[in-house]
Design brief:
heterodimer; A: mainly alpha; MetI-like fold; B: MetI-like fold; 2 domains; 13 helices; 0% strand
């Protein structure tokens, strides 16, 4: 091919740097309309995502002075070191990991059940689908308030059920006054709000599975249970991996429900999630360096976990 | 799961039983919110708690809507949500067109940079965004909210629209080019009109996102009169711990636009979620 040999000769001849720059410029000039299309989005993205990411990396190495940034003191890794040895931060990490470990399997299991049920031949499918989706479209602020009211210590519905209907406890439980008990409404809310979203995605994947495949397996003597394990779940695998990654990221980033339900980490800063602690350090205690360090640790961890999950769980799927 | 030949009567009973059981768990918290908003103040903490109010009153609605500048907050939220939605639709469709149908040096790396944007959790960027917004004098302003909301939506929506744009056959583009039309003509006359479902999906998701957004507005807006509804509702509950009736009345009014959008575009919406994994 003429062009490719031409290129190779050019490469061997090593055109001078200015010449190569000129060629690139010519290409860029020819594609100038494309850059016009990109321009507004690129400006926003650079100013409010890329630059902030780099900026906060820098801040995390400083004892940052918000009023006079020029007077900030470089402290190296001190912010990170301080965090890793701070009991409050460790507790926040523990709370967040526990939240993820509880809500992710909880959401996925329940969502799989709901999706399988909705995949049956039933009346009122649309109604059920919409109903199960309601918690998803309701804002975190509102659902958190509802759960606070449900778990109210004096007259909450949950305490009423536990004490007067099921007789499991003698005294009403003060859910939000205890750092461990406070995790119960927070985790249940996480599951309750998320199931509908995962279920809709799983339902779409279930409907993609060809019915003939299941029928053929049945003819060969496979019962419902072995069809679920042998056909349905393996074919759902990409969807399950996708959900797992997204839900774990969401779990590690739990914020609004914890902030509102615990009134910002009460009691005694023991109920924080990583993000509520980050915001409190930064905007209440004005420790911008420490806050930025928290955000970087979290981002790095999220990134690491996502890559790991995709690596471990991705496998070719064939019909 | 079960094939038609294997279905027994008790399977149907089991399926409906489980679905209705789940429905109760999903619905009771909402019903409790509605009923509390309709109860007179003194019944908020009645024991045992009742799902059906003894007496129905709209007093909580009158109280909540008439005070604390509720109308102002509602309009603030509406203004921010509408501006965010229109800007996001315009900017992300421009991006999606460039990434989906044009060639230019640096296309691949730039696209990957945008994809990274989808992986960064929004709240972790709040600190530096706050400092950038401060430097640009965007704190305490709705412009500051809109700019950040648009940016945080760009990656996902561009990705979604690119899929729609790519599926349009290129023969249509060639036809315009033969008639002497340029890139802009193709974009306006061919790409956008043929991608209406995609644009609608972007609009719905962006509207709901900005209507509900809490973390950034919470940090960026300190001026009382510029608050959006989620902030106002959360702070109201914090200040009046026992006035649950009014808190829920305000919440329900705040839910009206969300439920309306969802009801109108339900099919669209669920298809968008199922196809692209958008988080609604």
């Amino acid at each position: 091919m003429a062009t490719s040999t031409g290129e190779r000769i050019e490469l061997e001849a090593r055109p001078s740097l200015p010449a190569r720059g000129l060629a690139l410029l010519r290409q860029v000039y020819r594609a100038r309309t494309a850059y016009l299309f990109l321009f507004p989005g690129l400006i926003l993205f650079t100013a409010f995502v890329i630059y902030p990411m780099l900026y906060s990396l820098r801040i995390s190495f400083y004892d940052w002075n918000v009023i006079k940034p020029a007077k900030s003191e470089f402290v190296g890794l001190d912010n990170y070191q301080m965090l890793l040895s701070a009991p409050v931060f460790r507790r926040a990490v523990l709370n967040t990991l526990a939240y993820t470990a509880i809500t992710v399997p909880g959401q996925m299991t329940l969502a799989l059940i709901v999706a399988v049920l909705l995949d049956q031949k039933i009346r009122g499918k649309t109604f059920f689908r919409v109903a199960y989706y309601l918690p998803v479209i309701t804002s975190w602020v509102i659902v958190t308030l509802i759960f606070e009211y449900l778990f109210n210590s004096q007259a909450g519905m949950i305490n009423y059920l536990l004490r007067d209907v099921l007789h499991l406890v003698d005294e009403p439980i003060r859910w939000l006054a205890d750092p461990v008990l406070a995790m119960v409404p927070i985790n249940l809310l996480g599951i309750w709000k998320g199931v509908g979203w995962s279920a809709i995605i799983m339902l779409a994947a279930l409907q993609e599975i060809p019915g003939e495949l299941l029928e053929a397996a049945a003819v060969d003597g496979a019962g419902p249970w072995s069809r679920l394990r042998g056909i349905t779940l393996p074919l759902l695998r990409p969807t399950l991996v996708f959900l797992l990654v997204v839900l774990v990221i969401g779990g590690l980033n739990v914020y609004i429900s914890v902030l509102l339900m615990t009134d910002g980490g009460q009691p005694l800063d023991l109920t924080h999630s990583v993000l509520t602690l980050m915001v409190k350090e930064t905007f209440d205690r004005l420790n911008f360096g420490g806050g930025a360090a928290i955000s970087y640790l979290l981002t790095a961890f999220v990134f690491f976990i996502s890559v790991l999950q995709i690596r471990l769980l991705r496998r070719r799927v064939e019909y | 799961m079960l094939l038609p030949s294997e279905r027994r009567w008790y399977h149907q009973v089991l399926v409906y039983g489980l679905l209705i059981g789940g429905l109760v768990v999903v619905a009771v918290p909402f019903l409790l919110m509605v009923s509390t908003s309709l109860k007179p103040q003194q019944y908020t903490f009645e024991y045992p708690p009742r799902l059906i109010p003894r007496r129905v009153t709209f007093n909580n609605y009158v109280q909540a809507l008439s005070k604390d500048m509720f109308f102002l907050y509602f309009m603030n939220s509406l203004g921010v949500a509408v501006s965010t939605t229109t800007s996001t639709v315009v900017i992300s469709s421009l991006l999606a067109y460039a990434f989906g149908r044009l060639d230019f040096p640096g296309k691949e790396p730039l696209f990957y940079v945008f994809l990274v944007g989808m992986m960064i959790p929004a709240v972790t960027l709040i600190i530096p965004q706050f400092l950038v917004a401060k430097a640009l004098k965007l704190l305490n302003s709705h412009a500051g909210l809109v700019i950040v909301y648009v940016t945080m939506n760009l990656s996902m929506q561009t990705f979604l629209l690119r899929g729609f744009f790519e599926s349009i056959p290129s023969e249509l583009e060639d036809a315009v080019r033969i008639d002497g039309g340029g890139r802009w003509t193709i974009f306006w006359r061919i790409i956008l009109p043929l991608s209406r479902p995609g644009l609608a999906t972007v609009a719905i998701f962006t509207f709901l996102y900005s209507w509900d957004e809490f973390p950034w507005a919470h940090v960026a807006i300190k001026e009382t009169t510029r608050r959006t509804l989620p902030i106002a509702i959360a702070l109201f509950q914090n200040q009046h711990l026992t006035q649950w009736g009014q808190v829920f009345a305000a919440s329900i009014v705040g839910l009206i636009p969300v439920v309306t959008v969802f009801a109108l575009f339900q099919r669209h919406f669920i298809r968008g979620v199922a196809r692209s994994g958008l988080k609604g």
